[in-house]
Amino acid sequence: MMHLEANNMIHRDLAARNILVGDGGIVKLADFGLARIVDEAVYVASGGGKLPIRWAAPEAYTTGEFTIKSDVWSFGIVLYEIFTHGETPYSGMTNSQVSQLITKQDYRMPKPSDPDCIDAVYEIMTMCWKKEPKDRPTFEFLYHFFTDFPVSSETSYREAE
Fold this sequence. Notes:
- The chain is mostly helical.
- The protein has one domain: Transferase(Phosphotransferase), domain 1 (Orthogonal Bundle), CATH 1.10.510.
- The chain is built from six helices and six strands.
- The strands form three sheets. It has a two-stranded antiparallel sheet with strand order 1-4. A two-stranded antiparallel ribbon has the order 2-3.
- A hairpin with a 5-residue loop joins strand 2 and strand 3 (27-29).
- The longest helix is centred in the middle third of the chain and has 16 residues, at 68-83.
- The radius of gyration is 16 Å and the shape is globular.
- It starts with a helix and ends in a 13-residue tail after the last helix.
- Keywords: ATP-binding, Kinase, Membrane, Nucleotide-binding, Transferase, Tyrosine-protein kinase.
- It catalyses: L-tyrosyl-[protein] + ATP = O-phospho-L-tyrosyl-[protein] + ADP + H(+).
């Protein structure tokens, strides 16, 4: 995503279902059917195409405006999918309820219960879900955050043997 950001591309359908993980942990982004190369910072969609509401930034479905910051919102949703082990975002809600809660009541999903989703990771999710696109982090920031983030494959507590 940092590469797309640097090359003025907007994916517009960033979701776990479009991220492929191969041998050696190589990650590839798929489904560029909605992607756009933009000359301007904002792409305004015309026409009544279907939009993945649960992954889309609120400005995308309220005004039709897409930016790289719309993809940042979606990245926050992807993090949620990862830490809920594939749970559907806004589970139990209709698309209409999701859009109303986000736009009218500033609702954001709660922190996943997975113990690996520490407060710092949830804080990144909520940064991605800032109401104003300009307040969301860049993919360069996100890349460095997760690259520099200490990762442990073991839990911090184990029963004595």
